[in-house]
Each structure stands twice: as structure tokens, then as C-alpha cells.
Amino acid sequence: MRYQLRVIVSLALITLVFGDVSGPVSSSKKDKGEEDSDGEGSKVPVDFNDHKSDSIDDIVKRERSFVSRLRDIGNSPTFDETVRIMKAGDSDKDDSESSEKDISDDDSEDQVEVFEKVRKWMKTLMLLGHDSALDSDSDESEDPEEMLKLLLSLPEEPYVEPSIEEIESESIYTLGMTQLNKSQGNKHLGYKLMNKAAEMGHKGAKIILAWAKLFGSQIDQNIDDAREVFENLAATGNGEAHTGLGLMYAAGIGVNVSQPRALIHLTMGALANSTWAQMALGYRYWAGVTVPSACDKALYFYRKVATKVANEVSLSGGAAIQRVRILDEHENSGVNTYTLYSDLIEYYRLLAEKGDIPTQVGLGQLHYQGVRGVPLDIQKAMKYFQQAADAGNAEAMAYLGKIYLEGSDSVKADNETALKYFKKAAELNNPVGQSGLGLMYLHGRGVHKDTNQALKYFKLAADQGWVDGQLQLGNMYFGGIGVRRDFKMANKYYYLASQSNHVLAIYHLGQMHAEGLGVLRSCPTAVEFFKTVAERGKWGEQLMLAFHEYRQFEKNKAFVQFAIMAQLGYEIAQSNAACLLDRGEVTLFSGPPEDYVRALTYWSRSAAQGYSPAQVKLGDYHYYGLGTPVDYETAASHYRLASEQQHNAQAMFNLGYMHEQGLGMRRDVHLAKRCYDLAAETSPDAKVPVALALLKLMIVFNLESFQENPISMLFPIDESFLTNWDIYLITILTGILGAVIYFRRPRGVQQPAN
Asked: How far is C-alpha 325 from the chain's CA centre?
């Protein structure tokens, strides 16, 4: 906490050094003719660069560029939320016993007081960006000189030269990170190096090992050890450690669930530029999870993460993140999607070895992007592309050009070779080659820079629907490169490219909607785009790693990884974590009652993001009283949402049954039949269950009619029978056929009597 105060202190000091020490107060002094140009009136020995003689207008002009940056901090939950949570966090009933471990009562009171004073002073300072503040005579602002004394009274950390051991540990840490970040790196060696660096006291290595122990990656899972490391490092102000603790408190893994503590630690992590903390806060403010929904704050955090992702995206549009739903694996009649993909890949490899060119290109693309269970491997991708290119395939030539243009840790970038392959592919009218050639002309790589040529090739590629051509055309219209700047045309091409899920196109659309460039400004739309980009970061690979753990029957490891990723806003992680709890495959908690309560939370968050089976699950939980009291009305509302908004056949069938039985609503046989019919129309799999339900409904309806009026039984055939006569006829004929086979079965030949 004291570390974070120093961060705020440094911001305040910078403002004071480059601005007027008196702020709004000094302006009132100047109005009275009081001047301290010689600096004798200053009680603190700070060099203010002789700005005291400037007019108020000069001060405002000089500080507005810096104040705009401070306003970003003021708009974040840094001041108001942190102070509010610190006051309320320790009063949480669930955490009263352990509150003294994280925040000392004496220290927290002092720190809250400092936070309050800093917050008031910073907000007063930010008013300099508004003309209305210049005429304000409010006395609420703090005395800047008193404020400066308070800030300077905090202890400073003197710079210390790193020791030989610290330099050595940093070198070992760097080598370990190199192995861990390589697509084909030696993970075992990487963690071994991290362990050695951690033993030498390297904080970054300790954080890496703590995450590995939490997830059980390459080393034995030890949640308690991970928590202890996070707690020790968080006490020193480490942002990643705050993030780890925040996510553990949010998910209730290794600690009791405490949303106030989670929010405090995540806020500290976000201030330290932790990507996962920023994602978690962005999701919370977007979905209103334990905090009031605030689009501007969600935009603030998601935009930061999306910018990081966009800066790391290559020309290929970023790696595709494979996502597998555990619920689908269990409900698809035993069909194992993962095994199916593996069998198909083996079959394709066999075809490729026999010289099948389309298969060679397809396998090359799979290894180039790392999807469908195929690991990212540029060397194997080059092998398959080269085989197809030697046979004259234009697309393979174009992809070889992309590999040489971008370069990688296994292939050195080579503009001449890339240009050669792009030209060959473009001559064969291949859009990938045309787009690649346009890139080389746009950036002058291997050729003289020529925006007209670049525009020509991008248009040729875009006209054939190639995503890179559409993206680059959007860039040219957005920046006015070689064409007149046109935000509407840029938006058009970005939208076309986004339909192919190109990360950069989605990112640019988010920027345009956030700023209102070429479109009406829309904060919710911008957040949706930035959230999509943020979830395409490299950390999304953790989803597939978690599924691999699940396939290896490491259910607890899989759950912890899914639960942590669920806190970042990944919907599929939320549904997978809920599914594991629902099936009773997690042994980290006390048993079914607690598991159902936790599962209900994850199903709720997944349903809020539009996953219809999760909405149905919510209805089931309220119908059967799993993790919540039985509530037929709430169950019916969830079924209705899933049926009306997402056209879920299961929800329609369940809603029909509730109408039939009068559960949570007025009994209505006609509405029940309507719901059953809609379920049959929506999904072919529902036809047989619907037929049986309608048969039962007809029998019950006729029995009730007979009780009311026996004469009506003379005409038992109603509309439901006429509508589904073929299903009933097939059922009757099947019964007759079974009876015939039974009675005509061969009988044993009797032995003649002796």
C-alpha cells in the first residue's frame, strides 16, 4: 500500500515541479497584488523553475497537457473507489477474522487520510483544465504547501546499485523467460531457471513460479504456496502479486471469497499496469459484477489492454484462440471433438505426404496459426507451404512470403525472398500475394515506397474478399495515406475485415466508436470491440492448456485455470468452470451445496454474456433448488429469456412443460402445445420428445374433457393429432412390426421321442 502511495506522490510532485506551487490559491494572491518572485515566501526548498511570475493564463496553458493525463487517473477508480473500499473492506463480515493480515488498522487509517487529502488536491488541480474553475473562490481546496509537506514526509527509497547476485539472477530470469515465451521452447528448462532465479531473490521469477504453482503448470499444484508468495510480494508493492491475490479473492481459491479485498488488490495491480488486473476491472465495470456498471471505466481499462494486444499483433492478424466447451463435449452423444480433430489431422498428414496440394496448404495454415489442436510451428508450416509452392500453388507462395516478411524466432526476416514469393503469387492473381506486395510498397521494404502501387494491390486483394487487403485499405483511408482521409470509408473496410476476426480491424473499430470518428460515438460498442481484442491476447492460450489438463483428468488444475480466466471475463471459462462444479468433478471445496452456489454464479455470468445453455441451467437451478431456493417463477423467466432471445429448443420445451403443469404461472394447455411445437420447429432433435409430450398432453386433455362432458370422447381426435399424424403412425407401425417379429420368431425344433 505504501508503495502505491509513493506512485501517487510522484505524480503530485511532478505536477508541483512543473506547475505553480500555489495552484488556485496563488491565483487569489496575485489578484491581491501579493507576489513572491524571489521565492522567499516559499517554505519548502523546491525549484519551481521561476514560474511564479507567470499569469494564470500561462499556467493553464502550460498545465493542460499534463492535467489531461491526470484526469485519466482521476476518472479511474484509483482515488474514490480505493478510499471507499479501504473504509468498507475491513467491515466485511466474511473476512472479519483475517482482516488484520492484509491491512493494519493503524496503517489503514493513516493511509486513508493521506488518500483523502491527495484526492482532494488532485481534483482541485484538475479543475485547472476548466475555465469555470478560474472564477471559483471555493475554500475547499487544500493548501498546496501543506500538501507538499505531507507528501514529502513519506519515506523515500534511495537508489541502490544492484549487487552481483542481483545481476546474475536477472540474467537467469531473462534466459528462463526466453524459453517460456518461445513457441517451441523448453518449458521444463524455463521453470528450472525460474526456480534458480527465485532462490536468488528475483521477484519476477517468484511471481512466475507462484502462477505455475497456482495453475499446476509443469510443477506440482500448491495453492497455499502461491498465495503466500503473492502476499509477501504484495506487501512490497508488487503489482502482479496484487493481481494474483485479487483474482484468488474474487474466485475464492485458497482463500474465502471477498469481493472488497479483490477489488482493492485488482485496483493496485491495474495501477501497476498489470494486464490481467486491467482486464478483470474492465469486465467488472462492464458487466456490473460487485460494482456499479460504468461504461466509461470499462472503456478505460479494456482500451489499455486492447492497445497492448494490438501492438503485439503481427501482419497475420494474431494467433487464433481455440476454445472448447466441456458442456458440448458431454452433450454431443459421446462425440469427442478433441479426438475427432486429432484423427482428422493424422488423416490430412497422410494425404499431404502423398502429395495432395490442397491438404499441404491447409496443414501449413494450421501450423502457421496454431489452431484445431495443432501447435504453432513455423518450421512445419514452411515445410508444407514449400511442398505446395514447388508444385505451383499460388496461395502457398503467398504464405511463404508472409513468413519471410514477418520473421519469427525460427525464421529470419528476408525482404528479398518475401518480395519474390509475393510477386509470383500476385502474378497468379492470388489476393494474399497482392496484399503482401501492397504492404511492401506501402512500407518500402525491398522496394521503393510507393503508396499508389500499395493502394492498387490492396484494392485488388480487397475486391476478392481478402481480409488483409480490407484492413490495409481501412488504414489508408483512416490516415489519409495516398488517398483523401475518409473515416466512413475506413469504417467500411475495417468492418469488412472484422467479419474475418482480424484483431487489428476490431481494434480500430473500437477506437473509432470510442472517439466518434466516422460513426456516432458509442461507449458500449467500443467496449465490446475492445473486450474482443483483449481476449485475443496471448494469455488466451491458457484456455486450451486448461482443457488439456481436463483431458488428462486433472480436474482441479483445470478448474483453477478456468476460474481465474473467468474473472477476466472469458465467457467460455465461466461456462467450463460452472460445468465442472455442476458435475461434481472439483474436490477443492466442501461438497455439492457449496459447489452449486459457486456454479450458479458462473452460470449467471456466462448467461449474461449470451450463452443460452447457461440461461437454461439457471432455470434448472431455480426449478430444482440447486444452490438457491426453489423458485418456479424465476425458473420460468430464465427459460423464457433463453427461448425468446436465443431460440433455445430445450428452454421452449421446459417452458411448455411448466405451462402444462401450471408451475410458476397459470396453467394453459394451449400455450404448452405452442411451446412444444416451437421446440420441434427449432431443433430436429426435439421432434421425438415433443411428439411424446403432445401425445401425453392429448390424453390428459381428453380425460379432463371426458370428466367434464363424456359425449366429447366420441371425437377424441384434435388438432395436435392431425398435425403430428405421421409420427403417431410411425410409432404404431413400429409397435405392430415388433409384435409380428416377436410372434414369427423361429421356434426350437422338437426332438422326436425315442
From this structure: 16
Q: For 556-569, write each residue's pLDDT tens digit.
A: 999 999 999 999 99
Q: Which domain holds residue 85?
A: 2-152
**8 A C-beta contact, residue 168 and residue 200:** yes
CB 301 within 8 A of CB 279: yes
Asked if residue 459 and residue 329 are part of one domain, the reply reads: yes
Whether residue 6 sits in one domain with residue 142: yes
Distance CA 230, CA 265 (A): 11
On the CB side of 556, how many CA atoms lie within 13 Å of its CA? 12
The single residue listed with the C-alpha cell 467500443 is 526
Asked, for residue 654, whether it belongs to a domain, the answer is: yes
- Residues 328 and 402 placed together within one structural domain of the fold: yes
For 558-596, letters b (16+ CB in 10 Å) and e give bbbbbbbbbbbbbbbbbbbbbbbbbeebbebeeeeeebb
Residues in Cβ contact with 474 at an 8 Å cutoff, skipping those fewer than 6 apart = 489, 490, 491, 492, 493, 494, 497, 505, 508
DSSP track, 253-265: SSS---HHHHHHH
Rounded CA-CA distance 571/605 in Å is 8
Length of the chain: 754
110, three cell numbers: 493513516
- Please tell me the predicted confidence (pLDDT) of residue 54: 45
Task: Quick: pLDDT tens for 615-659.
Answer: 999 999 999 999 999 999 999 999 999 998 888 999 999 999 999
Question: What pLDDT, in 10s, does the model give residues 270-290?
Answer: 999 999 999 999 999 999 999
Domain count, the chain: 4
Is residue 258 within 8 Å of residue 227, measured between CB atoms? no
- List alpha helices for 540-648, DSSP H: 541-551, 555-567, 571-582, 592-608, 612-624, 632-646
Spatial separation of the C-alpha atoms in residues 551 and 114, rounded to whole Å: 51
Q: If we measure between CA atoms, which residue out of 16, 273, 266 comes closest to residue 147?
A: 16
Whether 144 and 187 share a structural domain: no
- Euclidean distance between CA atoms 11 and 121, whole angstroms: 12
Collect all residues with Cβ–Cβ distance below 8 Å to 731 and sequence separation of at least 6.
Answer: 691
